[in-house]
């Protein structure tokens, strides 16, 4: 059934592709197209051995470009229409935070990231987006001027490299996100803004609706959320943003790039607060079938820029692209190696596995954890520490023994009151 | 503590490396070295978009060599001392089973695989192993002569490409494994034999101890198990094999390359029988901390060739290498991007995450599934269909509608009697 | 420690008991006393063999008075200060609903219930409360006059038997609860009103705060919730009621009598909607230690009439009484057979069980379900059928085959859309 | 369907009842009848407030006879054909163990127990069984003579009160069970012997098969297991006993009286070792539907004396009796208040509950725990302390502070090695 749809639409799609060869992100969204985002780089490359959990910085663009290029290609093959430069946390204040000493500047890392993203994007139907995200400087209560200077420095690389559009993403505080948007707007490219918040709003309690309105007023043409929560929670938060924007009589496009982890037990801080973060999240990883449900729900809500963040592997993005194949009129390249809804299991040698080669089977499977001594939900930490608190001030020096002693005491205290 | 050990041993290790530059697998094992295997290619590359679940064949060596090369590199970086050629299920009878039509012969795929493995192995301290595995022909009751011819054809490529040693792996029936070993022995290289069985033994009920004795008698110098069961179960099965070999007054080296999935609910057929196979296994994925326990246990039991199979990502292999760093006197290259036992979390911006930068925290975490509506164990399917049964006969033609109807009825029947 | 408190307060308590021998419910609450309610009769007696699940009617007061008397005694012994007459669902329209034919009238059953409650109350420090609850007539859209006549008929028995106070409980709709309170007020006894709602409010969406205000305005002196939700959820709902009453500048006493089942997965209809209701709720039963937490929380919120409903066994009530022993200055009689916080385990023959004879152990135990193939949460049914819908109309005749066929179709449909 | 069977058989059943009015336990079993046992007294009466967890002794027969009588009646009503005297742990050495000081002797308690059991048995079709169980004296390494004297003292009460037969139950060591049987045999009544062991055998590692043979050789006519494990595990153990007896060419009848708790995670010591014992076992309680499966399985295995132990409430016994109604030709009296397989839910007011009034629904329900932060399996304690170890020696004095300190250290040590 899907196949015929794809085929029928394919001819006109090919024409469309020709016709829109130079379309940017806004042209695509304005035309009602579904734009598939890419997945998460830091977590995927941490597992592959190229990113250090803790600082989470992207120096691999310089040190191991082949690994970054390969991941870009896999997401492209999975159907992604956006190659985000691998520049997460790549501001100079973050790169040298808490004792991390790298041989490369933010500018070097970001230039290399642009080159890689552009190289791969040119191999398919994808745009390149340069990104900035929240800074230790904001967390450390630096001034608006100081923080904006950091964003400007990063943006200048993206403009020089002529990316297709800009994304301010992974912001916990709407104020800092506004600052970022205001800076990015000066670049003359389309600007998207994405916060890492859930339905409870930002870390200062600003609701998703109000965050959305403020971001649109700051100049963002595309708004949404990324990271920190599971797909359904993120879609819910974007839905609230959309309602806020519409209620305010404003207009925007919407994006969502959630975690690929189930996080029903999170509080407003998201998966950072879960005791499993970041090294024991495995049991929470979404299946491809969960992704079908996510893509469908995001589409229903009116979101048209649909991608992923931490935890999203290429096959997760492919599942999003396969679910929306009827709407998009095209299957992702990577589906040549994937039977829709498990249909290629018909080629398995074992008869009981062949019997699983169908949608009804996979839509209804309730996957066991294989860990009977573990719970299904955790109690998130909730230290009540927000921006301004001494424990959130950052510094260049390594975390001191004194600081470590202090946080261990805090941890013990938090646990006993849970 | 670990650091000092590594450092102290490092000098002599470097010397050793020089001294044993040409050591093969047997020299290493005879000298008491720990040899780290690589992880699983089919599952990892399926998620990356290059292997089709169902046939599970490795034509990517020809079609997407950069993807295969990159995965080899990641395992090498994670500490692997063996690069297995990506030649799983790459016998001609399997490549064209049930309607799969590929443009490449087994020989073409296997040659490309050897080239990739050798290229990457030369970048570090690794050996290349060429492998054969069970065949549809055996399952379809073909003769010993016919089955052996298939193994011979594959082996000839490995000999031509001059790999370091040979592995007969993923055998459910000891009889077929013996045939494979007998053929591989003619190649003049060291031979390892690894069955995909658990403590209950092979599909005909032959115990691990007896399987072990028969494999050693057939000529295998290294024996063990791979795939189908979780690490602790596989270690247990190898322990039983070792006891059998010792009781018989024989000698062997031991290897283990288990799943990276928790499978406490499996029966003798392993994870194939779990309802989550192959598309909903995510919640069962082991954490890196689980891998520390596995590596330690395997070492204690006396196994010295320790690697992984389906589900093992590079960070899993790195965890094995890190756990055994004191014994090996060396840390894997990839650990430059990994704080031992989470120590790099000291560089995290959030104080409660910095508090997790220690071994005691991660050793005791009980990871939640985030899926409260799912169970922790499943009921494996148990059709009672073994070699010789009509439903296990294979053929070149695609699975027919009639066959599909039949297996769906079988599935329904099996479920109602569960 | 607890013991000394109890002892110290005991003397004055005895005096107080003398002094307040004739105190009613309001005198006790006005004086700030904690009043312990009893537990659930229908579920406990169903398990003992005297109540039929389905109709859930209390004819056992006539047919098996010794069983009802014994349960009263157990709750008295556990510390209950209120003996509720076992008159649940004992209105004539309910007693003959859907084909149930009993030999006894509502009046006969209720008179017997009063006699039993009074007999046992006189054996200790307890008051007798006569109760009415929601009616099939209201659900079937009968008029206010008709419904009020039903309450009046029941009340007349309680007045004749001279109970100490009246309770209108287990109402899903605040309108019907108001009618009940208005009728009960004519009896000249103190009136309590308790709805079976959670934080989402009644079945028509009236919030707990508004329900509370309306009940107080109707004349209830004590208000709260009972049944349908677990203790913490019920306490939360009463907290919302209290906030509503205080915001409206009104005054009331508060009561809570929750389920003894964990129900985090309920929607507004409560445990009725859970697929486990009523015959597979076992895994959800609260431990005595859960009850300690409940009692403490209810007390903190300002609730002073604290009891239980379905699922509460005598030992649950005893745990409530033990937790509040310091405040009440007295331990329940039944504690002679219970070591506070497990202390009597010191007398166990096994040393590892003796090691469990302490509060810290039991406060932190995380009890396993022993059911690894079952989930931890369910999906409640949600048919969207409310008062006025044809499927909720009741009748004297037995449920017809046609009706059963219809509900099975509804069930199938609901499941597929879950 | 069941109803017609019951009705058809009823006439002949009545005749049979007349004809066998004086049949004892052996006549019934010899005739192939199914004998339903009663449920657990200590746990049920602990929850009702009459037994102290820790010593677990039955002085309630003297102090609260009405509570004991009521529970007997409930089990009789549920279908039990055996009233076991409530004399568990009622040997003088146990009654005064570890500082417990009671006003009553074992003889007084046991005489009262006999009177109560006989009174209720006479109200229906039930036999009275007097019981002895393991002693602190055996655990404390007293001599065979001393231990046998304890059994003799208890038996003399039963003979004086003329019970119908004798049961030696709840023995962890077959040696002590043999001693008990040898003593009981001198009473001239039929003797049953039941050990609290699972498939791993007794605490000294004696297999179920060997235990069985030794008990039969000691003179027991009925053998089996009770307590310590869940129904399916106990049935499995009895199956092994039966195989042992048959292999030895001996003959016996078989009995099983398991826990009403799911215990898949137990080791050989049974539920005593679970961290939830005895105050957090609630989530493990079996549903009535679990009991149907148990009764059917026990019957299939050839067990004909089928009852329950700790955790069995009257409704559990009723479920056993209902499942075996076709074989027995009679429904239990208590079923007048129970719709077979939930059929009485047809009288419920809510349509979605009426839809649950059928066997298929309840047979397939997978009950959620409602505790998402708890695991599904626990790690049993395993101190490795067996008879002879100083920690298992008992004494009259209360457990000393020194002893408590010691066991807490042991507990901590055991936990860290788990």
From TrEMBL, chains A, B, C, D:
For the biological process aspect of GO, one term held by this record is: methylation
Pfam families in the record, alphabetically?
S-methyl_trans
Please give the cofactor(s) recorded in the UniProt entry for this protein. Zn(2+)
Q: In which pathway does it act?
A: Amino-acid biosynthesis; L-methionine biosynthesis via de novo pathway; L-methionine from L-homocysteine (BhmT route): step 1/1
- Which residues does Zn(2+) bind? 227, 309-310
- InterPro entries annotated for this entry? BHMT, BHMT-like, HCY_dom, HCY_dom_sf
Q: Which UniProt keywords apply?
A: Metal-binding, Methyltransferase, Transferase, Zinc
Q: Which residues form the Hcy-binding domain?
A: 23-324
- What is one term from the GO cellular component aspect held by the record? cytosol
Quote the protein name from its UniProt record.
Betaine--homocysteine S-methyltransferase 1-like
Organism equals Sparus aurata
């Amino acid at each position: 059934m899907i196949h015929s749809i794809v085929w029928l639409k394919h001819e006109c799609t090919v024409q469309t592709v020709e016709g829109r060869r130079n379309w940017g992100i806004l042209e695509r969204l304005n035309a009602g197209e579904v734009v598939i985002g890419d997945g998460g780089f830091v977590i995927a490359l941490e597992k592959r051995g190229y990113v250090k959990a803790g600082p989470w910085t992207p120096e691999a663009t310089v040190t191991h470009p082949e690994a970054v290029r390969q991941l870009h290609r896999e997401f492209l093959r999975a159907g992604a229409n956006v190659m985000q430069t691998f520049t997460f946390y790549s501001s100079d204040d973050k790169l040298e935070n808490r004792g991390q000493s790298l041989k490369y500047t933010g500018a070097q890392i970001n230039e290399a990231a642009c080159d890689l993203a552009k190289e791969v994007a040119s191999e398919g139907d994808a745009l390149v987006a340069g990104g900035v995200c929240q800074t230790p400087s904001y967390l450390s209560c630096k001034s608006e001027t100081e923080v904006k200077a950091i964003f400007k420095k990063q943006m200048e690389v993206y403009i020089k490299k002529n990316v297709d559009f800009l994304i301010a993403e992974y912001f916990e505080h709407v104020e800092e996100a506004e600052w970022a948007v205001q800076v990015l707007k000066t670049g003359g490219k389309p600007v998207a803004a994405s916060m890492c918040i859930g339905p409870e709003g930002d870390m200062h309690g600003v609701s998703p609706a109000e965050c959305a309105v403020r971001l649109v007023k700051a100049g963002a043409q595309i708004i949404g959320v990324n990271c920190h929560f599971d797909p359904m929670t993120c879609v819910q938060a974007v839905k609230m943003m959309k309602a806020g924007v519409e209620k305010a009589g404003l207009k925007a496009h919407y994006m969502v790039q959630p975690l690929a982890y189930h996080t029903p037990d999170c509080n407003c801080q998201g998966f950072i607060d879960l005791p499993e973060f970041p090294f024991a999240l495995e049991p929470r990883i979404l299946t491809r079938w969960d992704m079908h449900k996510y893509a469908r729900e995001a589409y229903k809500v009116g979101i048209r820029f649909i991608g992923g963040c931490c935890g999203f592997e290429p096959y997760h993005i492919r599942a999003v692209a396969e679910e929306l194949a009827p709407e998009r009129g095209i299957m992702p390249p990577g589906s040549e190696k994937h039977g829709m809804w498990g249909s290629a299991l018909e080629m398995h040698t074992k008869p009981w596995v062949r019997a699983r080669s169908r949608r009804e089977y996979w839509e209804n499977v309730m996957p066991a954890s294989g860990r009977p001594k573990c719970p299904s939900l955790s109690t998130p930490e909730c230290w009540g520490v927000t921006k301004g608190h001494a424990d959130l001030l950052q510094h260049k020096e390594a975390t001191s023994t004194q600081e470590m002693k202090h946080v261990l005491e805090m941890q013990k205290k938090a646990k006993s009151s849970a």
